[in-house]
Amino acid sequence: MTNQKETQEKKPVLRVRDLHVSFASEAGVVRAVRGVNFDLYRGKTLGIVGESGSGKSVTSMAIMGLLDKNASVKGSVRYRGEELLDKDDLAMSKIRGKGIAMVFQDPLSALTPVFSIGDQIKEALTIHNPGMSAEQIHDRSIELMNLVGIPEPEKRLTAFPHQFSGGMRQRVMIAMAIANDPDVIIADEPTTALDVTIQAQILEVLKKAQRETGAAVIFITHDLGVIAGMADDIIVMYAGRPVEYADVDSIFAHPAMPYTMGLLGAVPRSDRGSDKRLVPIPGSPVNLADLPQGCPFAPRCPMATDACRHEEPELKPISGLEGQLAACLRADEIASKGLTFHDVYQVDDRTPSKFAHIPRSQRRKVLELKDVCKTFPVTSGGFFRRNVGKVHAVDGVSFDVCEGETVALVGESGSGKSTTLTQVMNFTEPESGSITVLGTTLSKKHMSREKRRELRAQVQYVFQDPMSSLDPRLPIYDVLAEPLKAQHKSREEIRQRIGELMRLVELNPDQVDRFPTQFSGGQRQRIAIARALAVNPKLVLLDEPVSALDVSIQAGVINLLEDLQNKLGVAYLFVAHNLSVVRHISSRIAVMYLGRLVEVGDTDDVFDHPLHPYTKALMSAVPVPDPQRERSRQRVVLQGELPSATETFAGCPFVGRCPLMPTLTKEQQARCMGERPSMRVSNEASRGDGHTVACHFA
Amino acid sequence: MSSALEYDETVECEAQKGPEREDLGSDDAPAANDSFKRTGRLTLYVRRFMRRKSAVVGLVMLVVLIFFAIFGSKLSKWSYDEPDFTALGSGPTADHWFGTTVGGSDLYAMVVRGLGRSLSIGLLSSIGTTVIAAIVGTAVAYFGGWFEKVGMWVLDMLLVVPSFLLIALIVSSATGGSDWLWLVFGLTAFGWIGYARTLRTLTLSLREREYVHAAKYMGVSSFHIIVRHLVPNLGSVLIINTVLGVIGAVNSETALSFLGLGIKAPDTSLGTLLNAGQTVVMTSPWILLFPSIVLIVLTFSVQLIGDGLRDAIDPYSRSAGKAE
């Protein structure tokens, strides 16, 4: 038995050779995957990284045989020596789920809403084991649910997908994937739709599932931090081709392909201060229907030579680096000279801030929130729609934003970050508490039109998705003119200003008569930022402004935001769930949990010395793009999920998940449950400027 | 009539202005450092419209029809209200190009006159209907709250009004030559209600779009949000409504005329002519044939223009031309 297992270990369970996938489209043939090769061994994890459109998901779909009919797949995929690409759908369905299983990105759409969880796990089991008895199925289901950490599995078997949270659904997906002890698990961005604390849990579950089944895992992601902690080997893909292949330590320690370097340089890191600027990769990803001649990365590559533009380099070993392959003509040169991304990419210096030498306490406050509350009524589903309760979306939030600084609001989804922003933007008195914008307190009393308009000009907003926040039917000129027209500027002023704005956000002013659809995602977000800055506001509220963008594009937008702040002295109130971005861009940070603030302080202070147990858990859950650090890190993995928003808490809302709770005495625990903690300066020696925390015992 | 003409003339004018303005822009460019090339939104739409051959064909057809309706009567010596009693129900001849009706009226003159009437009725009432429906429908949805509730009550109440009967009463009480104007009024006043309800439903999802919120946060007034964001984003639906509305209005007018309540003799319309032609289709088919051809050309041209307009204002269409 052991002998047999050993021979298995040496033979790859999945062998992919020269895989090509192309699709027919209106714009021509899209060559989504162009020559992928790899061997996959049991117990190993292969990470595939790349930006959107690099062909990573298409590769996995081709292996599973799940591509549309309009796709042409060439090459060879051998699973235990069997060729998969020759099999028809019926033959493939014998292997799917049993030999190769898949975990999808969106657990909401991957589960059928009309069947209970138990039925869906049962289906996964019986389809490959028709002879299983009802009792066996039940026992196996319970076993699986215990394995993936779903509490009270007996009760949850009869529950339906909508009764599960996102993280729990993803656990169910993993349970179904490992139900038949597959040899290969393909996880396609399994944690992208989840919060960072839940992401940490799911990654743990995936690792556990791999240990239990001994399966090989193909882990597809765009997040370099996640891959650093998960993978053994990494393939970096660009424009449908693997451009670099190596084990995880080599890739992160000495990347040899300029694209990999760019990717690593473009991600902000949560474990370091923001002394350095990010390195954006110039240009935008290639059009797969119209690939340039030569290396597809050449148009964006700072090291490209004429030779790069003529022939496409093969993926081949780099001299001097054992086991590392790169598709780059200059890889040997890079490896021998030991070039890093600082040598390859130009990093321009940061513009000095207008307010650099003025201490925070002497700056003017542009926004001040005091005990702001916002509740939403919960209505019963019946005919009369009675109010049956309240959701405390924002519950007693107080903080302020000064001139020229960036304050970040962070927290899991559902913690009330965006609601807080809308409270400010609505320009009405909050349900309780007060909002002061540039010295004007918003009140129920009728504000004169004139006054209101002036105030509007001082506060602007940038949305998460630039596609939906720009009217698709307006040319860019009219998009940018809108805030100016609302401020009654003259035609000549508007024209002048739009020219300035386009240059400010580094776009060509001659493109003003194009429609938003004709721009790429990063360019659109630049337009949205230009629109927000059109009227010279003092404060810009940004709701996840970079989360819809690819890493290389994101870096450019973050740099732009920083430069604009330093040049114009505008203050940002920044909402983001990506804590690495927050660490990079913000000077102060406010952590929210279930509508309440739990910790406020200077960014470096909060990241390096978090006080509140929730903040600690949040910070430790952020994956860092550094495999050695990832392995040695101690994680505070939070138990459970965000409680339902309709619950009301007499004391601290975090008690149910707090890792501090079991260490406290009975009396102390009673205090946590009964008494609401208020914001105070910590018991520990006060660090830095106004670092406050809402915890009795932190 | 005049309004319908104006509508087309503005389109024509813009088309001519287009390249001119562009030239001005590029002349400016080297002069001042800060200026840049910009094409106005209307120019942009006109250019996109003109890129579509079929739309231009439709526009030319409509212009020809309008000229025919205005100046066609000058070409013939016969007038629509002067029957030629020497040629009752005669086929097309050198004297009567399209033949005559059973009553001896010259069919060419009748078609010219009828086309004018139908064009004005069709275009005026369908454009009027669409404009009212678009503004009321989007406003009801946009403002929400009690405004929406009251608005919906009013709409529902108006829906149960027996519109056909009321239009008939209004038109029959009208005197003199203005009965067709009353007909347009009646068709418009009762035609928009159903559309408004449909448009409200469509707006319900539009009003939650981020660009609408963005405009609100920028301090753009409600009226401007409706006109600049909501109505244009309903563009495709509105244009289809207008195109179908032209055909619908001609139909309603025919139905009313059949009951003797629409256009009254000696005045005529395409609907009345078709109606008259139907009864004698076996003996004098030309009476049905010529008005039908004209009506088909009319609806076809409106259809082509509608398609062109829809694509011109739709940024996702291929009217953007070839990418550089």
Automatic annotation (TrEMBL), chain A:
Location(s), subcellular: Cell membrane
Region ranges (Disordered): 675-698
Source domain of life: Bacteria
UniProt cross-references to SMART domains, sorted A to Z: AAA (SM00382)
Domain ABC transporter residue range list: 14-264, 367-619
Positions of transmembrane segments: none
PROSITE patterns xrefs: ABC_TRANSPORTER_1 (PS00211), ABC_TRANSPORTER_2 (PS50893)
GO molecular function, one term: ATP hydrolysis activity
EC number in record: 3.6.3.24
Membrane topology: Peripheral membrane protein
Keywords: ATP-binding, Cell membrane, Hydrolase, Membrane, Nucleotide-binding, Transport
GO biological process per UniProt: peptide transport
GO cellular component, one term: plasma membrane
SUPFAM superfamilies: P-loop containing nucleoside triphosphate hydrolases
Sections of the chain in a coiled coil: none
InterPro entries the record matches: AAA+_ATPase (IPR003593), ABC_Ni/Peptide_Import (IPR050388), ABC_transporter-like_ATP-bd (IPR003439), ABC_transporter-like_CS (IPR017871), Oligopep_ABC_C (IPR013563), P-loop_NTPase (IPR027417)
Pfam family membership, one: oligo_HPY
CDD domains linked to this entry: ABC_NikE_OppD_transporters
UniProt xrefs under PANTHER family: DIPEPTIDE TRANSPORT ATP-BINDING PROTEIN DPPD (PTHR43297:SF2), OLIGOPEPTIDE TRANSPORT ATP-BINDING PROTEIN APPD (PTHR43297)
Family the entry assigns: Belongs to the ABC transporter superfamily.
The protein's name: Oligopeptide/dipeptide ABC transporter ATPase
Lineage: Bacteria, Bacillati, Actinomycetota, Actinomycetes, Bifidobacteriales
UniProtKB/TrEMBL annotation, chain B:
One Pfam family in the UniProt entry: OppC_N
Segments for region (Disordered): 1-32
Domain ABC transmembrane type-1, first and last residues per copy: 115-306
Localization (cell): Cell inner membrane; Cell membrane
The keyword Membrane is annotated on this UniProt entry: yes
CDD domains: TM_PBP2
Name of this chain's protein: Oligopeptide transport system permease protein OppC
Homology family: Belongs to the binding-protein-dependent transport system permease family. OppBC subfamily.
Family matches, as InterPro entries: BP-dependent_transpt_permease, MetI-like, MetI-like_sf, OppC_N
Membrane topology: Multi-pass membrane protein
